[in-house]
Structure formats: structure tokens, C-alpha cells
Amino acid sequence: MAKQDNDTPPPLPEPLRVPVADSHTHLDMQDTTVEAALAKAASVGVTTLVQVGCDLAGSRWAADTAAAHAAVHAAVALHPNEAPRIVQGDPAEGGGGLRADRSRQAARTAGGDAALDDALAEIDALAARPEVRGVGETGLDYFRTGPEGTAAQQRSFRAHIEIAKRRGKALVIHDREAHDDVLRILREEGAPDRVVFHCYSGDAAMAETCAAAGYFMSFAGNVTFKNAQPLRDALAVAPPELVLVETDAPFLTPAPYRGRANAPYLIPFTLRAMAEVKGMTEDALASAVAANTARAFDY
Ligand SMILES: [Zn+2]
Ligand SMILES: [Zn+2]
């Protein structure tokens, strides 16, 4: 393949004939205005977006953006990598905070728990807003956060499950290298009626488990990657009525544009690759995905 210029946005794909939603995006991390992103996405048949907050500021922004744009729905949460930062007194400072020296960490834990409770109370209040259709992304991330953050992540995850159930919103799960604990905690707490595994990363056996529980599985651009056969095997067994598509933009740009910035208008590349895996026509899968996303987020 010719060498790509990674600063050049990928070209517009051929429009979908049946419009779908990007079930998980981060417009606040993309180098564009909301209006421009929505117009570009709509021009290729991506007519609805779920804007996902990862911290308090991002969650407020998601709710406000959804209130201002009919095509946008919001999900609000403290990301699993954010919860330990709050407990340790280093919110939004990045991974360095997690490596904070242990004595400092111990001294802060009591106050840190209260800080996490305060942050969760604000998420709860945001979750009551009508334009907020989901609580997430929450869950567990054992890849980015080390063992010192596990307790905070699990406490935060349990609290988000409770909020989603009480507010009647979808639970949006971020699960990175934590499949068994995510499924166990969902069982222990009792899952909300609607659960979405965002950027689904389990294997085919886990897809059967999710299907049996009625959990939605949202596939991102990495399903197109050459080395992602286990993910395609999972998609192959996932029931069509539980499959969603997402960008997780600006991350996980689908092939053949891996390495460039992702955006909602690139959904058609991922959806077409998924249709091939499912042995469905593009239109049939798009119809299913559109209906599934509306059901998952109750809009
Ligand atoms: Zn995530
Ligand atoms: Zn995300």
C-alpha cells in the first residue's frame, strides 16, 4: 500500500442507503465543531450519535450538546480510568497519577472516597436529564489501570450500575482485559434492562454469554483490523438483534485508514466489513443496527 499521510482526513465513504447511529463517539476529542461533524456524518447516512462523557466536565458537555442537537444523545459517567484518579486526588492528570507514591495514596484514600462519592452524585444528577440516554462509559480497565486502581474502579462501576437502574438508562460498559470481573459484577449487582458492551472485545464464547443475557454488543473499527479474527468470530455468533456499530472516535479508525483520526462519518467502512462477516446485505445489517441502537438507548 502507498504510504499514507496520517494528517489527511480519510475520504467520505459511499453513503449508506439505510441510515444508522454511531453508538459511541467522543466529539469533544475530535478536531472539529459539533455542527461540522454532524453534517459530515449525516451526508453518508450516519444520522444519530451517542456522545459519551468520560469525566465530570465531559459528561456535562455531552448532556448540553445532546440538549442542543436532536441528532445527539448523551451518556454520562466517570471512565474506569478516571475513578482511581479521583480517589487519588489526581483527576484528569493522565496515567502518571496512578503511579503516585503509595504513602501519599494511602493518606488520600479516605478523602478520595468522599471525592468519588461527590463526583458520582453529580453523574447521578446528570443521568436524570431527558437527553441523557445512557450511563457510561463505566466498567473496568485492567490494561490502562494497575492493581492499585482496581478497588476504585469496581466501586465506581457498581455505583454506575445502580444509577443506570434507578434512572432507567442504558448501561454503557468499557471492558478492557477485565471480561470475567465485568460479567461477575453485573451478575452480583443485577444488570439494568439495557446493557451495551462498547468496543466489544470478547471472544465468541463471551458473545454467547452476552447474547444469553440480552446484552448489546457494539463493534468498533478494530473489527476491520487484519489481526482481529477473534473479534470477527465473536461478531459472527452475535445475534443480529443485539449488534451495534460505533466509532469510539477519535480512536480505532477502521481499515484501510488505520492511523488517521477517526470520526463518525467513517461508520460505513466498519458497517460494510461487519455485513460481510455476518453474511448479511449492507441494508439488512444497517436496518437491524438502526433499530437496535434506538432500542438500546430508548430514543
Ligand atoms: Zn471505552
Ligand atoms: Zn469511548
| Beta strand count | 8
Backbone shape: globular
The CATH class turns out to be Alpha Beta
Major sheet: arrangement of strands: 1-2-3-4-5-6-7-8
Helix/strand structural class: alpha/beta
| Count of the domains | 1
- Overall mean confidence score, pLDDT: 93
Bound compounds, each kind once, are: zinc ion
Q: Strand fraction band?
A: 15-25%
Q: Topology of this protein?
A:
Layout lengths: L19 E6 L8 H9 L3 E7 L3 H13 L3 E5 L6 H5 L14 H26 L4 E10 L8 H18 L2 E7 L2 H11 L5 E4 L5 H10 L2 E4 L9 H9 L5 E3 L21 H12 L3 H16 L2
Parallel strand pairs: 1-2, 2-3, 3-4, 4-5, 5-6, 6-7, 7-8
Helix pairs in contact: 2-4, 4-5, 7-8, 9-10
The site of one zinc ion has 4 residues, from loops.
Outline:
A divalent metal cation 1 binds at residues 24, 26, 137, 248. The protein is of the alpha/beta class.
Explain what you see:
The protein is α/β, with parallel strands linked by helices and 299 residues long. It has a single domain, classed as Metal-dependent hydrolases (TIM Barrel, Alpha-Beta Barrel). The chain has ten helices and eight strands. Strands 1-2-3-4-5-6-7-8 form an eight-stranded parallel β-sheet. Helix 2 links the parallel strand 2 and strand 3. Helix 2 runs parallel beside helix 4. It is globular. It starts with 19 loop residues before the first strand and ends with a helix. About 3% of the residues have low confidence. It binds zinc ion (ZN) (2 copies). The site of one zinc ion has 5 residues, from loops. It comes from Streptomyces noursei (Streptomyces albulus). InterPro entries: Metal_Hydrolase, TatD-like. Keywords: Metal-binding.
